Amino acid sequence: MDGMNVILRGKALQIINSMVKNGYANTKSEAIRLAVLSFWDRRTEEEILVSRKLDRIDKDVREGKRKTLNAKEALGEYAKYLQG
Q1: Within a domain: residue 5?
Q2: Residue 34 falls within a domain, yes or no?
Q3: pTM exceeding the 0.70 threshold for the entire prediction
Q4: Per-10-residue mean pLDDT for the chain, 84 residues long?
């Protein structure tokens, strides 16, 4: 997608201008690239943390340290609202 034009307004424009003004980026284009890369890094990090947490829960269940509940047990008195 070379030569892409982006129109920024409001808070997004303020942030990009601030990044350039404070020396985090030399140009608005560079500031946008940095923001996109930062977003991707954060998203990837979150996915890794979620995966680790789910692996830990699965391990706890296998070792009997954590009990799993079916839908009726989890909902308790509200189970009567389950369809099916």
Answers
A1: no
A2: yes
A3: no
A4: 84 97 96 95 94 95 92 88 73
